Amino acid sequence: MANPYEQAHARSLSDPEGFWGEIAQDIDWVKPWDKVLDASNPPFYRWFAGAECNTCHNAVDRHVDRGRGDQAALIYDSPMTGGTQKTYTYADLKDEVARFAGVLRAQGVGKGDRVIVYMPMIPEAAIAMLAVARLGAIHSVVFGGFAAAELASRIDDAKPKAMVSASCGLEPGRIVEYKPLLDGAIDLSAHKPDVCVILQRPEAKASMIPGRDVDWAEAMKTAQPTECVTVKATDPLYILYTSGTTGVPKGIVRDNGGHMVALNYTMKAIYDVQPGDVYWAASDVGWVVGHSYIVYGPLLYGCTTILYEGKPVGTPDAGAFWRVIADHKVKVLFTAPTAFRAIKREDPEAKLMARYDLSHFKALYLAGERTDPNTLEWAQKILGTPVIDHWWQTETGWSIAANCLGLHEFPVKPGSPTKAAPGWNVQVLADDGHPVGAGTIGSICCKLPLPPGTLPTLWNADKRYKEAYLSEFPGYYKTGDAGYLDEEGYVYVMSRTDDIINVAGHRLSTGQMEEVLAGHPDVAECAVIGVADELKGQMPLGFLVLKAGVAREHADIVAEVVKRVRDQIGPVAAFKKATVVKRLPKTRSGKILRGTMQKIADSEAYKMPATIDDPAILGEIEAALKAIGYAK
Ligand code: COA
Ligand code: AMP
Predict the structure, then answer these.
(1) Of 92, 528, 547, 593, which has the fewest Cβ atoms less than 10 A away?
(2) In order of start, what are the domains of the chain with their CATH numbers?
(3) Over pLDDT 70: what percentage of the chain?
């Protein structure tokens, strides 16, 4: 007899319209769909075509309408501001969101307009997102750790009518003033937003530009609450930019209807929570995890979500996560493995845990990078609860593979995020497009159509969407990850097939960093690779070949390129190390052998590439790496 997971997974593939059509009954629709799946224009697929709805209504208002108004919707917990805690009930949240939607409407924001949200981890970030959704407009949240130039490229792509920001974010030991970054970005961008709504935080006061900037608190005093504006299920809810293989980020589009259906389903099926449970995603609203599981998923399902402004360590200590779990009776925590590695490094025996009552805690979920078996075992040992690695991407919005605790708990195999979630037909393909057998590594691909909640396209870039994801293996979505399936259908995600690296769970493009390095006047050629890092999983490392005749101190040039990456991409790139070499190893056709360089740096065995132009260069690279502490 098939277990509930097997039944759900099989039905989701054999009868996707029946499967998702039933699940969609849990959402309030203004008008039902004409078709569950519109497959009339492959490879573009649209879920719930013809339906009308509003995401903010489903995430906020309907809970108030059905008697949950007094339940905590969002708890703000901020060790960064000396321990602030603030609870918003669903009724409070509705009031704030409806009034902030009024502020935006008064500034001319309406259906289909874009609004960029550039905010730290404060409740107003979620309020702004929900207010934009309420108006039927489209938000694009930009992570605070990005530099002005990155924000500018997103302004030029999304062409927002309005920006919402705050005077500052708070990082341990420093105040990150957002307003100069915002102003700098608008100076750099060709498109100019009409208005910037700025929340003044007490830690830093932003100077305002008269005629363009509006003070959040002032505007809220007189704001008129607005109703939810009906949109099509297929209209975009948000654009979230993520690293592509070039400096131009990809604008991942998320629709309204499919997104609600999928996220609402995952709360029970994958995370096994109930409405009213406390769910905490320790991430940032600027990442997809923050969109899906700080804001939309838990609120759609009627949970209490935690918005935590702090770190796993140092705010004030490695017991911070246990303190939050105990204070708010958290049932499920979702974070990146790097956070647990940071805690383990500071408190290897988890002694600080003894101070707290964790009796409500039921499961830990990890994603953003592969959970290494050491971290998995440590977390299992100290928590004594299931620890679930699950695999997903900004593009997919929810997990492709997971141990779906709400359906059936499978035994955990270390190094694997378990099996394809319902809706996902995961196959591993060889370069020629044929599926490979169990245990053989290839490109991990998902058969089209993808389930609801996944990207229907890239913002204003249908062609790029097809080229980036759908062309290489016709009929499939290429995840960009390589790996294999075992004979029981467990998925193993091993590495990326492109230049993306994961640093502390943050997705970065080495190609983009190379573009910045190449812009330095002394650099003739360069390469950036991701090297193994005990805490962050991977760290970027640069190789610089200088122009002929450059006789400056190498240390100065390295310091300058490090600063360039910080200034142009942002501190989140964590680009701290580079080395000057005479030449880069290449194939005879001129392709830089980044994979071989990475293996040398990580002291892994490697095969001499058959197509290498000059094998002697590898010895030079190894010597340069040894000199800076790699290739041991
Ligand atoms: N605004 C401005 N700067 C930011 C920022 C933000 N929102 N977020 C990070 N930065 C800065 C950091 O201050 C740091 O700057 P520094 O070079 O001056 O030290 C830099 O970007 C790199 O940040 P990070 O890679 O996060 O390293 P860290 O040393 O500050 O912290 C961890 C390491 C493991 C504690 C941290 O990455 C963490 O808590 N990760 C949790 C998991 C997570 O959030 N994953 C996201 C997807 S689920
Ligand atoms: P992002 O879009 O930032 O979520 O990054 C997505 C990428 O992170 C994936 O394509 C993987 O390379 C990696 N990733 C995320 N979660 C996992 C996981 N659980 N196991 C392995 N890799 C992961």
Answers:
(1) 547
(2) 4-310+390-483 (3.40.50.12780), 504-627 (3.30.300.30)
(3) 100
The atom number, within ligand 1, closest to the CA of 176 reads 2
Q: What is the mean pLDDT of the chain?
A: 97
Q: What are 306-326's pLDDT values in tens digits? A: 999 999 999 999 999 999 999
Are residues 322 and 431 in contact, defined by beta-carbon separation less than 8 angstroms? no
60, 499, 539, 575 from 510: Cα distances, Å: 39, 6, 10, 10
Mean predicted confidence (pLDDT) in 460-475: 97
Atom of ligand 2 nearest to the CA of 496: 12
Q: Is 342 near ligand 1, meaning CB less than 6 Å away?
A: yes
Ligand 2 atom 3: residue of nearest CA: 507
d(CA 146, CA 151): 7
pLDDT score of 246: 66
* Residues counted in the chain: 632
If you measure from the C-alpha of residue 571 to the centroid of ligand 1, how many angstroms do you get, rounded to a whole number?
8
What local confidence, expressed as pLDDT, does residue 610 receive? 87
CA 391–ligand 2 middle distance (angstroms)? 6
Among candidates 578, 571, 508, 561, which has minimal Cα distance to 537? 508
- pLDDT tens digits along 483-515: 999 999 999 999 999 999 999 999 999 999 999
Please name the residue that has the structure tokens 């499920």.
332
